[in-house]
Structures are given as structure tokens and as C-alpha cells.
Design a protein that fits this description.
Among the domains are: 79 residues; 57 residues, no CATH class. It starts with a helix and ends in a 25-residue tail after the last helix. The chain contains four helices and three strands. With 197 residues, it is mainly alpha-helical. The longest helix is centred in the N-terminal third of the chain and has 66 residues. Helix 1 crosses helix 2. Strands 1-2-3 form a three-stranded antiparallel sheet, with no helix packed on it.
Length: 197
């Protein structure tokens, strides 16, 4: 036991037990400090290596997830474009018009024969995809009957339609009336006078 021999020799040289105990305490503290420092250094290195390894794994997982999602989106987009030609589509492909957002198609069954009988809102879904919030809101609006016809005539040339005539007001008023159609209750009003400068 070399440590005990060196302590004993120190005792002989120093000549007292308290000095030997102090020396022993200093040596023990130094050994503990060295052990803690080595443990900390090894722990940091180990943690750094583990973080790098888990970072690489997380990056690989994120890339795989991105590729999988991208494939799903592309498959969905291709499916949307081909849907009218697949079995079970609810109308003749010639009657369907691709929109994309917020729904995929509006179809007018009978339009290819010259006599459309209804308007269909069609959303194509592949796999386990679900309706978005906007798609659900549109579905609820259609199912509740909140659908209307609006005819818009943009101003052409120098004759812009004004709101000074009853006909112009009635045409511009597209709010639903009591029966669900345009109210048609517009009354012509005079334009406000401009103050003179």
C-alpha cells in the first residue's frame, strides 16, 4: 500500500497526526475533484456523440416523412385530375370542371347534352385524407341550401353602370330576399351633393 506508506513517512517527517490527516484530506479532495472532472468530460463527450447520433436519426426521419407526405400529395393531385375518368365518378367527365380550391370539381350533369339539370360540388379524397375546414364549411353551406345565383356584368367601355337607376340598383342588389333569391327591393336614391370649395 504505497499511499499508506507515503502518509506514514509524511507523519514521521511532519511529526503529528493532525498534519497527516490534513494531507490525507487534501489528497482525497484532489482525487475526488479529478474523478468529477473526468466524469464531467466523459459525460459531455458522450452527450455530444449521442446528440449528434440522435440528430442524424431525427434528420433522416424528417426527410423520410417529407418524402412520404410529398408522395401522398402528388398521388392525391394525380387522383384528383384523373377522378372523372375513373369508375364511380358521379357524372359524365365532360360535365365536370376542375377548380382545385376550395373544392376539386363543379359538375353540371346534362351540360354536355345542352341541358344541365343540377350543379354538383365534388371533392376527391384519396387514402385516409379528410376534409379541410374550408371544405367542411362549403359542404355545410351547400347542404343547408345557402347557394345562390349571381349574374355579374362588369363595366365595359366608358358606360359604367351606375346605381342611379332602379334597374341598376336591383341588378346590383344580390343579397338574399325573403324567398332566398335576390331581394329586388332596391329603391333609387339621389346621389349626395358635394360641398363646393
Amino acid at each position: 500500500m504505497p499511499l499508506i506508506d507515503s502518509i506514514a513517512q509524511a507523519e514521521v517527517r511532519i511529526g503529528s497526526w493532525p498534519a497527516a490527516l490534513i494531507l490525507l484530506a487534501v489528497v482525497i479532495v484532489a482525487v475526488v475533484a479529478l474523478a468529477l472532472w473526468l466524469g464531467l468530460a466523459i459525460g459531455r463527450r458522450s452527450g455530444r456523440l449521442e446528440a449528434e447520433r440522435s440528430g442524424r436519426e431525427a434528420e433522416a426521419a424528417a426527410r423520410d416523412d417529407a418524402v412520404r407526405r410529398s408522395r401522398a400529395v402528388l398521388t392525391g393531385q394525380i387522383g384528383e385530375q384523373l377522378a372523372p375518368y375513373l369508375p364511380g365518378f358521379p357524372c359524365d367527365p365532360a360535365d365536370a370542371r376542375f377548380i382545385g380550391k376550395p373544392i376539386d370539381f363543379i359538375a353540371f350533369p346534362g351540360a354536355s347534352a345542352g341541358a344541365p339539370v343540377e350543379a354538383l360540388f365534388i371533392e376527391v379524397k384519396t387514402g385516409d385524407s379528410r376534409l379541410s375546414a374550408a371544405e367542411r364549411a362549403l359542404r355545410e353551406a351547400v347542404e343547408a341550401g345557402r347557394v345562390r345565383w349571381v349574374e355579374y356584368r362588369p363595366p365595359v367601355g366608358s358606360r359604367a353602370p351606375g346605381l342611379s337607376s332602379a334597374a341598376g340598383l336591383a341588378a346590383a342588389d344580390t343579397r338574399p330576399g325573403p324567398g332566398g333569391g335576390p331581394s329586388g327591393s332596391a329603391v333609387p336614391t339621389k346621389a349626395p351633393r358635394r360641398p363646393r370649395a
